[in-house]
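Raw record, unedited: Acyl-CoA synthetase
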Amino acid sequence: MAIVYDTYQREAPQRLPLLGSADPSRVLARRNGKAVTAAQFLAHVQAVAAGLPAVTAAVNLCEDRYAFLVAFCAIVLRGQTNLLPSSRAPQAVDEVMAAHPGCYALGEQALDPAPHGYRQLPSLDATLPIGTDAGWPLIPADQVVAIGYTSGSTGTPSANKKTWGSFHASNAGNLAMLQAAIGPQFEIVATVPPQHMYGMEMSVLLPLLGEIGVHAGRPFFPADVAAALAEVPAPRLLVTTPVHLRALVESGIELPPIAAMLSATAPLPVELAQAAEQRFAAPLLEVFGSTETCVFASRRPAVDADWSLYDDVILHPQPDGTAVEAPQLDASITLADIVSLSDGGRRFRLRGRHADMLEIAGKRASLADLSRRLLAIPGVHDGVVFQLDDGDALGVHRIAALAVAPGLDGHTILDALRRAIDPLFLPRPLRLVTALPRNETGKLPRAALLALLDQHDE
């Protein structure tokens, strides 16, 4: 008996393919040492979709990247929306589910405790019968297929809707940039979770729409990254973050030959970019974007401080940030980033974020630059400078810092900072900690920073 999906019952002015190629034999993913073809993937998607409840949205909690791909497309095929919390921590999941009454959660693992209405995927190891007469599914371009939540690094996480049409548009920019750097075909290994918009763009949309293969795992330790890369054929692209890059460089591990590395989610120090390129004999590319906009620019930070915009992207600098026009956006979105344009508006240099800019006694500094100078101190392994919520009688907010610096004391760090920055911007308090509360993508949620500071103030 044929399955009639909710999606097929909707009328939309335009429909776009769920998969970017009609070739059923192309390799979409590699899982447990085996290649998974597009046809077998679609069979898994259809089988999962048939068992989903008839509601409007689902929290996609899959950790295995192939399971996430199957769940993502099954949810989309049923005309539903993938909810992507900034973290899979129970509280973050509960908050998202509370904002979408009636939704359910979907994952490949047996969770205990599990979110309300949790459903576990069936095994994806079985080879299913492949139908050849139904054709490739088409999805309405205006269907909201995902809602991504920001990390909370600048405050409360916010929800951002993504349509299938907007994902097609943003993927086109990423694919063009990567193919220009690597070539028409490559295989992806990613250390970032697919729930994060960077992970979504580079390890979910590229294999779905760009005819690119992806490794199903999410390797964390350097040895795991090396093993995952060895399981995919060349040319290989490593999609990662500055935190993972630093660990790879410092580990001294040998990686299989890679065509390129890609980084995002946090500022990438030039010194680290140069060290990574030298260590792994491959170019390191960095992409610029946000959950609100998706990626819209790239650069190679080891050799270039300026960013190059994707085709048809236009920036409009504002006093409090920058308005972005891009093919994936229905209307311009203003980000807090301050930029200066060059090359006829096709390139830009980042000058800081409006929320990061500090002004005390007529002098200005940025939190990003202060953090960079903290990290440049020999012996500081990790660190961040941030502003506290409560201001003094004049409305000036105190500056605080957390640093991971075994073998150093606070006085030594402050003395080094005093030689690098204006004393007005010295962080007080500065607390030494064993680790910063980075999330899965290396970002630092503001609430976690304040909680850690409070612990050390007790």
